[in-house]
Amino acid sequence: MAAPLSPEQLANVARNLMVAKMFSLASCVMLFYDIVITFGQEVERIWMRKFTMVTALWFLNRYLSPLGYIVIIVSFHHPWSKEVCNRYILFPEALKIVTAFVIGVIFTMRIYAIYSGRLTIVLFVACLLAAELAVKIWAFTDGTSLVLPEGLVGCILVGKHQGRFVFTWVAELVFDSVVFFLTLWRTVVHNRLLRGNTSSLINLVLRDGVIYFGVIFIANLVTVLLFLFATPNLKAVNNY
Q1: Which contiguous run of DSSP H or E holds residue 143?
Q2: pLDDT tens track for 134-146
Q3: 89 with 144: CB under 8 angstroms?
Q4: Residue 169 burial (C-beta neighbours within 10 Å; 0-12, 13-18, 19+)
Q5: What's the rounded Cα separation, in Å, for the pair 108 and 120?
């Protein structure tokens, strides 16, 4: 049985736990705020058009994470029993795997389009996506709930083995990097063929790719550093 925490240690755990909770809540608020301010454009450009497979992927990417976030916020603040927490604990990571699959399919379709359906490139990206999902599943099955001192509330996922979760973010970064550089290379080739007169669509794809890659790279780097060096009760920051 572990020795009881000193008042200073207990205060530190409580403070770190509050940081994780406030971070997750702020992320959730930003996510819903983005949905609210762009809802008019969504109705005009998505709802008023013919429903296709791409539309279905868009709706999954748009609303799956926000709906899952509601459950996650509840798990952070509601005093669940140990049994309930253990049944729930892998839900956020299962949600991440499904979300990663949806995003990966969208990226693969974009690569298919900008490479004019070149089968070898598409199969390469699809295999890379499958590898990313396999790594995520392997890493997340190592998850368990964090044991908190009596009086503190939160159902928080941590790894049984130090550092194993890092691989899921590395796998995601590898996939995103490959997609980004494939997009960049195709844009450069297209630019040379047109002697600098690139279309606005190609420029838009490259611009969005650069912005997405930069944001995701920073987020994944922060997550990796947290999992390697942060205390267990702070590891939830940027993990939900």
Answers
A1: strand 143-145
A2: 999 998 888 778 7
A3: yes
A4: buried
A5: 12
Report pLDDT digits (tens) over 45-99.
899 889 999 899 999 999 998 998 888 888 888 888 888 888 888 888 889 899 9
Task: Show me where the domains of the chain are located.
Answer: 7-234
Burial class from Cβ neighbours inside 10 Å (0-12, 13-18, 19+) for residue 7 reads exposed
Q: What is the dihedral of CA 221, 224, 229, 231, to 10 degrees?
A: 120
Helices (H), 38-152: 39-42, 53-77, 82-88, 91-114, 119-140
Burial class (CB in 10 A: 0-12, 13-18, 19+), 19: middle
- CA gap 181, 210 in Å, rounded: 10
